[in-house]
Write a structure and sequence with these properties.
The chain is mostly helical. The chain has seven helices and no strands.
Length: 125
Amino acid sequence: MESNLNPEKNNPDLYLGLGSMIYALAKADGRLQLEEMQLAKEILADEPYGSLALYALMLREDYDETVDEAYAFAMRRFINQRAQLTEATKKHFVNILQRIANAHDDTSQKEHAMIQRFRRDLRRL
């Protein structure tokens, strides 16, 4: 019954997208900061496929993927799974990004702009 009520909770593809989006956000201002990484680990530990999201984030960091590549990958995951991407999940994912952006004292304009772009892109799905 749970899977019918919360299809996003049983969809690992959404969490591959989330991990990639967190990476894109963290790299938006140039580099992945320690505070952002620590908070991402804490937040993702409580998510259904958090370890998968964290793996996606770490893999992108290992390959030093560009912000645009990571963002595009994440959006493809969300587009492909739009039927399972509920309004509550969209809001939850945006809130996660906001929390990570606020992990250090100076949320950059680039991070803020990326969150706004993500919010707009999700609305279109």
